Amino acid sequence: MPKKPLRKKTTRKIKANTQKNKISYKFVAVLVLFVALFGIGFIIKKQSISISPETEKTEVKKLPPDIKKEISTAASTAASFRVPILMYHYVEYVQDKKDTIRQSLNVNPYVFEQQIKTLREDGYTFMTASELSDVLDGRKQMPDKPILITFDDGHWDLYTDVLPILKKYNVKATAYIITGFLNGSDFLTTAQLKELASSGNFEIGSHTVNHAWLKGRSKQSLDDELIKSKITLQELINKPVVSFAYPYGAFDQQAEEEVKNAGYKSAVITVPGIVDSVFNRFFLFRLRPGGRTGDELLNYLEQTTFNPY
After folding, report:
1. d(Cα 187, Cα 178) in Å, to the nearest integer?
2. How confident is the model at residue 80, as a pLDDT?
3. How high is the pLDDT of residue 261?
4. What would the DSSP string read from start to end of 238-306?
5. Virtual CA dihedral for 255, 196, 278, 126, nearest 10 degrees?
6. Closest C-alpha among 115, 171, 114 to residue 143
7. Mean pLDDT in residue range 269-275
8. Which of 173, 210, 232, 288 is the most exposed place for a label (fewest CB within 10 A)?
9. What does the alpha-carbon distance between residue 47 and residue 40 come to, in Å, rounded to a whole number?
């Protein structure tokens, strides 16, 4: 008989200890989860690398001598505007760590959102390429603190990662699409492209049919890349396509002339700069934001003065 109370007491102790252990395990699990999330956030912030102005200046060497002369003339005679045009390629969490090119051109979604938030809160006005053209044509006034967000190539992350962020902050961007790559494994589908175009957050521009190097090409070869891509995009989205980006930033006077003849109103290059005018509307400078956010990004835009001339 005396053994029964002892067993009950022992059982109660075991249950109490078990309950305490459960509470401890839950506490430890929550603590570990918190630390893990904090660590992931820290890694995400550090993942994108800021590109220094010194590195960006190497792009200037790509300019042909005749274009440098044209820029020099434009700088001295044209009314100009200070308009930062930011250049992006990928906005994703790169899975293949061996893909060094993708990593070097990537800004992860966390950082991209922080950049958009920073610019929005600082009072920047987000424009599209065609809206900038309207200003250069004198049809519109330049807004306060203008900025353009541009994407080259037309990768799938425009739909999965970029569009939700643009919608969240109600901002606009311009996407330059390689028409021959649509529906490829690394690119937008035509259905996704149509949704981007109808969203109100994207202007669609051309980036040629085959991502072709345009410098030194014949007129016929240029027309094949410039006109066919324009027609294809216009038929897909049922809107005019008037903006263009040179693949690799490679162009010369003949390429520039054919871009005009194809009916585009502006074209962007990869050479860093921040001042635009009617004279360089077919080779507008762009900046790589890298991983800059907050004050670092704002200071970068405010202090940037370098231009090829």
Report:
1. 9
2. 84
3. 98
4. SS---EEE-GGG---HHHHHHHHHTT-SEEE-SS---EEEGGGTTSB--B--TT--HHHHHHHHHH---
5. -150
6. 171
7. 92
8. 210
9. 10
Distance between start and end Cα atoms, the chain: 102
> What does DSSP assign to residue 215?
T
Q: What is the pLDDT of residues 221-237, one digit of tens each?
A: 999 999 999 999 999 99
Environment class of 89 (CB within 10 Å of its CB; exposed 0-12, middle 13-18, buried 19+) = middle
CA distance 19 to 2: 27
Residue 226 near residue 211, CB atoms below 8 Å = no
Q: Are 281 and 259 within 8 A, CB to CB?
A: no
Tokens (6 digits) for 173: 């961007």
Alpha helices, DSSP H, located in the chain: 3-47, 53-57, 65-77, 100-105, 109-121, 129-136, 157, 163-169, 190-198, 219-237, 253-261, 294-303
What's the pLDDT tens digit per position in 23-43?
444 444 434 343 343 343 433
The answer to whether residue 57 scores a pLDDT higher than 50 is no
pLDDT mean across residues, the chain: 83
- Torsion angle, CA of 279/282/285/289, rounded to 10 degrees? 150
Q: Rounded to an integer, what is the distance from CA 83 to the centroid of its chain?
A: 16
Give the global pTM: 0.78
Q: Decide if 91 contacts 161 (C-beta within 8 A).
A: yes
pLDDT at 306 over 90: no
